[in-house]
From TrEMBL, chain B:
It comes from Amphiprion ocellaris (Clown anemonefish). GO terms for cellular component: mitochondrion. InterPro entries: Glutathione-S-Trfase_C-like, Glutathione-S-Trfase_C_sf, Glutathione_S-Trfase, Glutathione_S-Trfase_N, GST_C, Thioredoxin-like_sf. Transmembrane segments: none annotated. One of its GO terms (molecular function) is glutathione transferase activity. It holds the Pfam family GST_C_3. This is Glutathione S-transferase rho.
Length: 272, 227
């Protein structure tokens, strides 16, 4: 009866391969209803099927993991397989992770047959593949688009400076630590955050303007992480405003790190 | 078009080179450009600061639009000039996914290379340690083995995401070229050597080859000879 076919279902507004069950009927009499059936099946099965073919291994509070989770919500891809792992228990080095990610890192993300362990790669791929589903996250206007790209990649610089401080004692063996380095790292992050305060002062609501874009998907988790580490709202009022205005966005609320509700943060960043 | 574009750049710098390769691939030759010297601190000059408050290269302007992050420029140009020059983001989902994955692994790759070849640039004299140099070289070795493996799996004549030259190659090739400039052994890393040999012949790469490498064909070959 059923025909399992992998077709490019262009009439369903899909831009990718879909596995679909179609009842085959005599072409002449019911070509139209056959197509409508496929269309309805495609629309009905599409999101469910695709999300069910996705797997995310993640850690609570990790900004790269959180970016992918926000992305999946924004593109209405809820229902994906997921597993919460613990960094403390070294579960990111488990065989389960290594099988999908030889680097032994999370996030580890599989989208059908595609492995996308880099959070930005997952974000770009999902936006491209699900362009007409959920929220549009790359603006058409060249100005807004350029600004979005610029800020997205500046986020890496922010993250580097943050990580230099947070992971200093983990990355740098005792004999190689220097007060001069610690001081320099602190000054670097302070200067970096001033830049971002400046950027946010110039825009309405979001990094690239009025609309929430990929730039916010990748930036917000790091901002939230900074406040979790005790960043002062008084020293960084514009960042605090950004943080508070987006905390309640549906995709962000739905994916708020579970461990953050259970335990207090730290005050590592309070003097920045 | 290209005449509305300005690029401030430094010779041999991978982020600058990515943008130059991109402009060639999208047939945007004829842009305004200025070669600046890192040694003379020209990246901190007012001319750069006017476009880029971070005082870094590349600094890129298209009309009133400013994008100073090399990956940002690549994505922006591919999007704005989709129908011109080489198509650099494949439609085929297998290649597309692999392209994105390798592009962003390319950042980790670049960090590990830079930690070794630019060690003395990044780390003040009083903070340098042989143990750190050793550790950075080991990290680079692990990273290089990964990329050898990736190329091995795809087979000879392949680009990073498969049969087509994509954005992944635009952004990663300059890093690979720097590896060989600084003495990486093609005997120990034959797949990387083959990849380097393949891509360096591409017109966009030849057209943007670092000028000071042309003047001095031998680089600092001791840096990576033990890796």
């Amino acid at each position: 009866m059923g025909l399992n076919s992998t077709n490019r279902m262009w009439w369903a507004g899909a831009w990718y391969k879909t596995r679909l069950l179609c009842i085959s009927v005599p072409l002449l009499t019911s070509f139209t209803s056959h197509n409508i059936f496929c269309l309805l099946s495609a629309v009905a099965l599409h999101s469910e099927t695709m999300a069910k073919d996705m797997t995310l291994l993640w850690g609570s509070g990790s900004p790269p993991c959180w970016r992918i989770q926000i992305m999946l919500e924004e593109k209405q891809l809820q229902g994906y397989n997921q597993k919460l792992l613990s960094f403390e228990k070294m579960e990111h080095k488990s065989q389960e992770v290594l099988d999908m990610n030889p680097r032994g890192q999370i996030p580890t993300f599989k989208c059908g047959n595609h492995i996308l362990n880099e959070s930005y790669a997952a974000c770009f791929f999902l936006e491209n593949q699900y362009k007409s589903q959920g929220n549009k996250l790359i603006p058409d206007s060249p100005d807004a688009q350029a600004l979005m790209y610029q800020r997205m990649f500046e986020v890496f610089t922010l993250v580097e400076k943050l990580v230099e401080i947070v992971l200093y004692n983990y990355k740098v063996p005792e004999g190689e630590r220097h007060d001069s380095a610690v001081q320099r790292n602190k000054e670097a992050l302070t200067a970096e955050l001033k830049l971002w305060e400046g950027y946010l002062k110039k825009t309405d609501c979001c990094l690239a303007g009025k609309e929430f874009t990929l730039a916010d998907v990748v930036f917000f988790p790091s901002v939230a992480f900074l406040f979790r580490l005790g960043l002062s709202s008084e020293h960084h009022p514009v960042l605090a405003k950004y943080y508070n205005s987006l905390k309640d966005r549906a995709s962000i609320k739905a994916t708020w790190p579970p461990t953050w509700q259970l335990t207090p943060g730290s005050d590592m960043m309070k003097n920045i | 078009m290209a005449k509305d574009m300005t690029l401030l750049w430094g010779s041999g710098s991978p982020p600058c080179w990515r943008v130059q390769i991109m402009l060639e691939e999208k047939k945007l030759q004829g842009y305004d450009q200025k070669l600046l010297s890192f040694e003379k601190m020209e990246h901190k000059s007012q001319e750069v600061l006017d476009i880029n408050p971070r005082g870094q290269l590349p600094s890129f302007k298209h009309g009133n639009i400013v994008v100073n992050e090399s990956y940002g420029v690549c994505f922006y140009l591919e999007s704005q000039f989709k129908n011109q020059g080489t198509k650099l983001i494949p439609d085929d989902t297998d290649q597309q996914a692999l392209m994105y994955q390798r592009m962003f692994e390319g950042l980790t790759f670049y960090d590990k290379v830079a930690a070794v070849i630019y060690y003395e640039y990044y780390v003040p004299e009083g903070e340098r340690h042989d143990s750190a140099v050793k550790r950075n070289k080991e990290a680079l070795d692990t990273e290089l083995k990964l990329w050898e493996g990736y190329l091995q799996k795809l087979g000879a004549g392949s680009y990073l995401a498969g049969p087509s030259f994509t954005l992944a190659d635009v952004v990663v090739f300059p890093t690979v070229a720097n590896l060989f400039r600084f003495g990486l052994s093609a005997q120990r890393y034959p797949k990387l050597g083959e990849y380097y040999g393949l891509v360096k012949e591409r017109p966009s790469v030849k057209a943007s080859w670092p000028p000071h490498w042309l003047e001095n064909p031998k680089g600092d070959e001791d840096t990576l000879k033990d890796v």
